[in-house]
Amino acid sequence: MEHPPIGIDLGTTNSLIAVFENGAPRLLSNVLGHPLTPSVVSMDGKDVLVGEAGRDRLATHPRDTAAAFKRSMGTDKVFSLGGKRLRAEELSALVLRKLKEDAEQALGMPIRDVVVSVPAYFNQSQRQATMAACAMCELNPVRLVNEPTAAALAYGLQDRDGESQFLVFDLGGGTFDVTVLEHFDGVMEVKASSGDAFLGGEDFSEALAKGLADKINSPWAKLGSDDQNQLRFVADGLKRRLGTADSHDVTLKLGGESHDLTITRTFFETACSGLLKRLLRPIERCFYDSNESMETLDRVVFVGGATRMPMIRQLVARQFKKLPDMSIDPDHAVALGAAIQAGLVAEDRALDDVVMTDVSPFSVGIETATQLRDGSSMEGFFTPIIERNTALPASRERSFSTMADNQTVLGVDVYQGEAPMVYDNVHLGRFDLTVPRAKAGMESMMVRITYDPSGLIDVEAVSTSTGKKAGVVIRDNVVGLSDADIKSKLKAMQKLKLHPREDEENTALLARIKRLYEMASGDDRTMVQNLLVEFETALTKQDPDLIETTRGEISEVLNRIDDYYVS
Amino acid sequence: MSAKWPWSELDLDGRTDVRSVKRAYAQKLKTIDRNDANVFQSLRTAFDEAKFLASPSPKKPSMRQAANGVETVPGVVSYTLDFDDLPAASQPEQDPNPQSEGPDLSKAPPEDLDTEDTIVPLPTAPLPTAMSTASNPWSKPEEEPQSDADKEADFFRDLAATYNTGVWKLTPLQNLLERDIAMDRGVRDHAEYLLFDRLREAVVEEGRSISQGVAKLMEQNFGWASDGVRFNKKFGWHEGSELVAYDVARAVQSQNVKAQPRPQKTPLHAKRARIFMCLIMYMGGVFVLYPDGLTAETFLFGTFVAAISFGIIWCFVLFLYHWGNALISAVRRIGMIDRYITRVWQASVERATWFDRIDTVLHLPGPRSTMLFSVSCAVTLLVLISWGLSRI
Question: In this complex, is the C-beta atom of B225 within 8 Å of any C-beta atom belonging to chain A?
Fold first, then answer.
């Protein structure tokens, strides 16, 4: 790498980029001066708005805006924005491009090699989609790092020579990861990782929004998508408010009716009780796999914005009987850790005495069939060869034999997952091994799976009698997309122009004014309108100083309005 | 592997304390090629082994905790009496990870587990009460020391009452598992184990199968079907645990299958087999009908007749077969026929013999279909012969 090591946290709600220099990671701010760039993409005519401007347009132009697309990574879901149809990885690529431009501006040099963080519980196809997103904006992801591992690195680097056993509780916008780690003599050892790839802060907002709909007696399913969006927006703001206050007043305007509600924290917690229960299973699984008990933990580290919710703190305190540690901002920890990982990959000298070992988050195995007593056979069983939470790199083998007389082919289908039946797991690849004819069970093969920390899975089968080999290599690359495909995608993506940087602050402010205009009522609405006129006048005069001061003044007023109407 | 393994692998002279083992491991780890799986794994295995040998007392098994904890709780005597096999059942838990700890069981005699310091008591210390009421639960002092033990006793008594009946009532059971006390890990673990044991008994000893409702409940609460690996680790050492796993997976999966149909694998050579079979049948029919010789005209006609009659007869046999199968499974479901499943884990197969190929074509697994096929062939030929004879 010619440039310093770069780490990217591509989050569900916010994304960050950090650099590793002078022996420590540092966050790079975007053009608005914030380290957090909302992972929201909005189409404004031909322009693409990414970040805060996009987030404000989520309320005003929901049809042109996409958010939380990380949850659809690795699926075929298509988002349509202002007439354009984009997949989750393309939207992620736009966010990455924005981060890249911000970082290049901040560092004054082009960047290419990066380490990107993914939830530990992302499976192979989700990881591959993340790699594809990087390729689409000309970034070279040298390594994908698991988010809790990254966060642990950030914490571990604070206290290099210490020895401790801790748990990273990472509840982000859309994903939930739990990881148990041990840290001693500069070795950061991941003991077990578990999680839920479809559980995060967004689900808590959604649950609250549904609770609100119930409270005003208009069933969620019967609301139009615009009303649902509005409720979601209100719920999201309420969620933040209830983090500090015990109750909050909110005015809901739905279908011409206005509802004044007082929402208490208890109401929120009741609405989310199902989600809290879902948080417990990965924790239990993690302890089960690592053979550790909760008593040996020294601390619990909180990562991810959603851990700010008081009910999460209570849950953790109740489970572990420990106060959670939030000494690094939960929003920043992953990006900082990703930068450290980039430093590790680049063999940065400052990290000479730091070693990290990770585990495989999923079991990897092959499909097997089983003989029933009546002589018929049943296919589709999953037999793990490398069990989940095995320290990486690992290499394990297991022997399998033929099931039918004169069978000449052994088909090896490689799967990843935990379900006992392969149809519920993720298919990674397949190959055949030919063996000589013999009675059932007389011919066998050894299947060896090698799994390394960069995500490369090498499967090899050897016939025991002939020594003939066959195999397949599965890596974190872009499946289904050839190099030519990526090039054409790259071209298509380049046609989408990001909004000009120098104009960004103004665009963001305009989007915010427009959002508040839709939200406010009565006199406030007139006031917001006046602000809009004032700002547009300032813009037409093209005097940078005047624009700057107006922007400052208007932001202050907007902050007050925002405080009043939950945002 | 030398006699001094695992110490030699870590460049240690001999048995030492955990701290030194960790330090040695950290040092060695920084010098080896960490991308080589074999090098890394051999160091790793040695490290795990050495750490285990060096630790003053073996790891505490979770089930043991739960069992012991419960026995000390007053008021649950009736429930422990119901399960006189409890101490025996908790025995295997002393070896929760046989692969890594295998050789050292002798060094960790079971008596050790009963000493005070190795057993973590079940949280008899109070848990914070309901989440919603405790705004700051970790700072809450021991307010109601008795109440949690009582709750726990109540929980297990109610649980025993629910599952000791012949038919499980799902809603009460689900409600029971949603109680606050059931969120505690020790209690939950133990409850899971009790439920498993009851199900195992029902499946293995009483020959019943697990209903879809119960299977779903287990999946929702404990993830038995979605997490086969954990299930196996937790209960794999019980006789018949695989029967329970299979039943649960099948009951839960039957819904998934609808959403995601099983891929039908029809190998290419099946087509060849089909053509070959038809040819034989047609030729047989033709030769029976016209033993004197063939003309183009008679060949076509004979072929036509043979094809139609074979088709009709085969459909009838197939109908009988499926109807019979449905009957068998219906009878099996109400528990009149013993289960016939054995599990032999073997590689997935591509069928190779001729009869197997025929099976693949007809989508009928196993030798039973071969027999059926032969019967249909024979009947077809008989019909053809009698028809041919009647024409002469």
Answer: yes
pLDDT in tens, A29-52: 888 888 899 999 988 877 888 888
- ipTM for the whole complex: 0.75
The total of other beta-carbon atoms located within 10 Å of residue A520's CB is 17
Cβ neighbours of B34 in A, within 8 Å = 355, 357, 393
Average pLDDT, chain A: 83
Q: Which chain A residue shows the shortest CA-CA distance from B178?
A: A277
Distance of CA B183 to the CA centre of its chain: 25
Nearest CA in chain B to A315: B131
Interchain pair B347, A403: CB under 8 A: yes
Bridge-based pairing of strands A426-434 and A394-401 is: unpaired
Considering only the beta carbons, identify the residue of A270, A280, A407 that sits closest to B183. Answer: A280
Alpha helices of chain B — where are they, by DSSP H? Answer: 18-31, 37-54, 62-72, 77-82, 86-90, 98-101, 110-114, 145-163, 170-177, 185-200, 212-222, 228-235, 241-259, 269-289, 296-333, 354-362, 367-391
Which of the two residues, B329 and A551, has the higher pLDDT score?
Answer: A551
Q: What is the pLDDT of residues A381-419, one digit of tens each?
A: 788 899 888 888 899 988 888 887 788 888 889 998 888
How far B178 CA sits from the closest chain A CA (Å)? 9
Residues of chain B with Cβ-Cβ distance to A359 below 8 Å are: none
Cα→Cα distances A518→A215, A253, A565, B244, Å: 23, 11, 11, 57
Give the pLDDT band of residue B215 (cuts 50, 70, 90): confident
Residue of B25, B226, B347 lying closest to A368 (CB–CB): B347
Q: Encoding tokens for residue B243?
A: 């029967």
pTM, two decimals, is 0.66
**Ordered DSSP codes for A306-357:** GGGSHHHHHHHHHHHSSPPB-SS-TTTHHHHHHHHHHHHHTT-GGGTT-EEE
pLDDT at A6 over 50: yes
Angle, helices B185-200 vs B228-235, to 10°: value is 80
Give catalytic residues of A, as residue numbers. 9, 70, 147, 170
Range in A30-34, A117-121, B66-70, B228-232 with the lowest mean pLDDT:
B66-70
**Residue A379 to residue B29, Cβ atoms within 8 A:** no
Q: 3-state class of A373 per DSSP? A: coil
- pLDDT tier at A480, thresholds 50, 70, 90: low
Contact B185 A287 (CB under 8 A): yes
- Distance between B138 CA and the closest CA of chain A, angstroms: 6
- Three-class secondary structure assignment of B161-213: HHHCCCCCCHHHHHHHHCCHHHHCHHHHHHHHHHHHHHHHHHHHHCCCCCCHH
Q: Check residue B114 and give its pLDDT.
A: 35
pLDDT at A230 exceeding the cut of 60: yes
* Among the ranges given (A248-257, A273-282, B70-79), the one the predictor scored with the smallest mean pLDDT: B70-79
**Token pair in block for residue A406:** 């004169």
Residue A300 pairs in a beta bridge with A167
**Which whole-number Å values give the CA distances from B389 to B170, B293, B322, B386, in the listed order?**
66, 16, 33, 5
Q: How far is B59 from chain A (nearest CA, A)?
A: 8
Tell me the chain A residues in contact with residue B228 when contact means C-beta distances shorter than 8 Å.
Answer: 382, 418-420
What does the pLDDT look like over A127-181, one tens digit per residue? 888 888 888 888 888 888 888 889 988 888 777 677 888 899 999 888 899 999 8
The answer to whether residue B98 neighbours chain A at the CB level (below 8 Å) is no
Do β-strands A426-434 and A364-371 pair in parallel, antiparallel, or remain unpaired?
unpaired
- CA-based nearest residue to A362, from A389, A344, A341, A340: A389
